[in-house]
Design brief:
heterodimer, A: 260 residues, two-stranded antiparallel sheet, flat, B: alpha/beta, six-stranded mixed sheet, 16 helices, transmembrane (chain A), Cobalt transporter (chain A), ABC/ECF_trnsptr_transmembrane (chain A)
Chain lengths: 260, 466
Amino acid sequence: MQEIMQYIPGDGIFHRIHPLTKLVFTVILVGLAVLTGDLLILSGLLIAVYLAALVGGLSRGLTEQIPLLVILGGMLVLFTVLTMQGGEVILTLIPAAVPLIGGALPVTSGALLFGTILALRFSVMLFAFQLLVISTRPGELVMTLRQLRMPIDYTLMFLIALRFIPTLQREGIRISEAQLARGYSPGDGFIGKVRGLRPVILPLIFNSLGKADTLGMTIDMRGYRRGKAEPDPISFGRLDGIVITAVSLLAIMVVAVPLM
Amino acid sequence: MPIDIQNLSYTYLRGDRPVLNDISVSLPAGSMLVITGPSGSGKTTLCRAMAGILSHLYSGRLEGSISVKGKDIMAYDGVEELYYEVSMVFDDADAQLIFTTVGEEISTSLRNRGFSRSTTEEELVRILGLLEIEDLVDRPPYTLSGGQKQKAALAATLALGTDILILDEATSELDEAARGVVFSLLRQLADEGKTIILVEHMIDEAALYADACILLEDGRITASGSAEEVSRRIQESLHPVRRRTTTANGDRLIEMQDLVHCYGDLRAVDGVNLTLRRGEIIAIIGENGSGKTTLVKHMNGLLRPTEGSLLISGTRCHDQSVSLLSRHTGLVFQNPDTMLFEDTVRKEVAFGLKNIGRDTGCIEAVLAEVGLGGREEVNPRHLSRGERQRLALACVIAMGQDVFVLDEPTTGLDPVESLQIMEILMRLADEGHGIVMITHNPGLATTYADRVIRMNNGRIVSIEEA
């Protein structure tokens, strides 16, 4: 089964650099993706993240997310086209020949461009974050967040969210097997599928809520919020310098190119 | 005295009657106490009282006194100060594994005690060794079996190094061998001067290691003494075992020949030959990870054999859908909460019947058969664990299949509830159904099954006829 957002053991460049370096890399890329609205620059950023993953031996971890990105990207474009208009009308979703409502729902060049920019922006963010998460042990990431003096409650929340993703995936499979054993077969078509989710989603929610009490007591009783553990001092290597320099150069280029 | 409780009564917020009633217990250092009793008798509440959870995290009404190491429990600055003295392992192991590998889970407890990196490494190796889980150090929680999770949760709690350790049904998913490892480790810790409190349903095994035992019933201590004495008293109160009236006849309901199932390179089931006949009860026992669950998931088509042949009610099942095979075989999973989702007991049973197009007129009769008669309109989430387990069973038996497969049907149930489940299974076998149950309770297996099959590394290593 494919795990979402889970650490992949390895020995590539991304595994060897300090989690803080990776955090800086991710924050800069996400920042650039938000700041720029240029289609070419966004495409360049996406390629840059992919190349970085390729060098670090983690390209598969990103390509596995492409089907999800295509679906989400397609939906972003669709919603933008439906809710925004600008520039020239390229076509109408309801042909002009249809009586009464013909010519409704126009697709404009401005909306299409903006939707594509949103989808690309989202892809850069997801790729950058995925690269950080799959190359860093969650424990190290949490330690780094603590080195940055982030409050322990927030770091624990982040850790627990990552930790329980695969557990929920598996629990979902177990529940759907239990319902299959009761002769349940999900309905046909979109509506059927949505209605068919109920016997699986409801136990998943109830069981997760049931865990929250024990989880809270465990955190308190193990003293995680008041422990004596002091974070280790941050120590950077040569590789960290190279990655920080590369991503800084990328940032300068992104800022400078439109000015030229 | 590490723990001293005098005249403790406790009522949960919005509770209408006390869950604990006038409890007094004193535990000297170096002692190991077993607490037992039926579901809902207040065992977990008593553990939570000793751990300071009731006093510091809950807002019910508490009367009487609790002192930990000679200091009143209210004088501690919350459970976060008590954690230097008392640690507790809860029954839901999964919710206690917060980190993404077993090693990190244990190391974090150690680092929190202020240990240096090198001491943490040494202690980590020692603790993994104590529970024989060295091979799990880099494994994420989601890849562990229930028993392995319980060991990991115990290891992370042991790493806190407190003088008082409470285990609330924290060994329920361990196999016999693993329980032996844990119990003897707890005895060793008690001999070193720690105070151990263990909540257990299967006290016969724990009796060999414990110093004392108390029986809780309806929030009161109704018996105390050595674990053997209390165990004898419980056995006396149980009804004698009913003998089966029929034995298996010739009809073959399930036939497996040289069945193999591979997960990647792992042969989880490795050449199993097994026949289940009408009217027969088969128990499957074996250590965690021996292939028991993988094997039974073939019986209703959730898994397909990698090699070998499988006939269900005489039909080759390779190309049949699960929904079709579920008309022949009903499967009840270990945790009833993986299937219950409706808001009344009646709707819950009706769900399966409607799925296979059957009449829902039998619901009352089936519920009466599992002892839930008259509870049709109750919300399943308001039932006790034992009742939910019987409801899950009712949901499946209502569908009237030939074969019923149960994965650990008595985990987390007290002896009376376990007996109720066994009574139902015997009745079904007498009616001509074939029953397969996985269990970690060898006593239950030899008492109620016609054949006891032991599995190891995906193979059947022994078959015992009753």
